[in-house]
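Late entry, written up from scratch paper. The run itself happened at the end of the previous shift, but nothing got recorded in the book at the time, so transcribing now.
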Amino acid sequence: MFNFSLFDLEFVYPWWFLALPFPLIIFYFVPAYRTKQSAIKVPFFSQLIEALGEVPSTGASQLSPSWWQRMTLVISWILVITALAKPTILGAPQIRESFGRDVMVLVDLSGSMAERDFSSSTGNNVSRLDAAKEVLADFAKTRQGDRLGLILFGDAAFLQTPFTADQDVWLALLNQTEVAMAGQSTHLGDAMGLAIKVFDQSHQEKGDEDREKVAIVLTDGNDTGSFVEPIEAAKVGKAKGVRIHMIAMGDPQTVGEAALDMATINRVANESGGQAFVALDRESLLGAYQEIGKLEPQLYESSTYRPKQSIHYYLIAIVVVIYLIAFTMATLNRGRRFGQGMEKNNV
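Output as recorded:
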């Protein structure tokens, strides 16, 4: 039933073993109980004994247990004392993980993210989205202990990945994203509002109200008609304890529909307690995520423990079984002696 060694066994109350010698102390220092027998006192006792040829005995006798009764008492006493010491078995080592932050990454999938003005780690020209995927993969590896989530936005915002500690799943869902799969426009404020809602729902369900909440927004354009203004969403985020870091991809000097609204981006970061970054190329994008990593250091903690299982009730169960067997044996012996006595009387 149990697979353990003596090194896996410990006692919660080991001082109970000090009571083991108590029966010996009582045996040697406390007079034994003697059963009294009725007798007749006569003045001619010596002549009567001599005439009968009997050996006189004391008026009280001491009961003497048989060997199996002694063994039953000794084993039962040892088992009872061991049970009182509450032996426990240490289970296999378990790891208890304490996660630090919830990090929600918001990625812009508008049409401008297809611009091939970034380079990969190998030096090839890639789209802004592909460069973001590559940098985010490196960023995720540094977030041990954090739960990551992913929101994609364009004409609308939707939750691609709920908060998870499984980085492989998160990266797989990130790599499935394509430019314009959420539409051509940039509804930045709606995406931020959705992120705040996801934070609230996740923490209410899991009871992690004290958990730190961080949102990282990656965009290359300005807000184009969100129901919720980005600045208003930032104020709500601050009230809910959500820090929002903004990363603007592209040239801030760009004009037209693809122009970056740096004033809004900076204000959103300031209102929520985060910081704003500008990424003109892969190196600056990587530097932005590295700086965010410094601003939001890991809070991950892990501890190892071994679960304990008490086995004292098994010992008590053994004592009960021993006494049932002993009582049965005593009853059978008494019945056998009674039968033998009846046979002698019949003879």
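The mean pLDDT is 81.
(Scratch paper discarded after transcription.)
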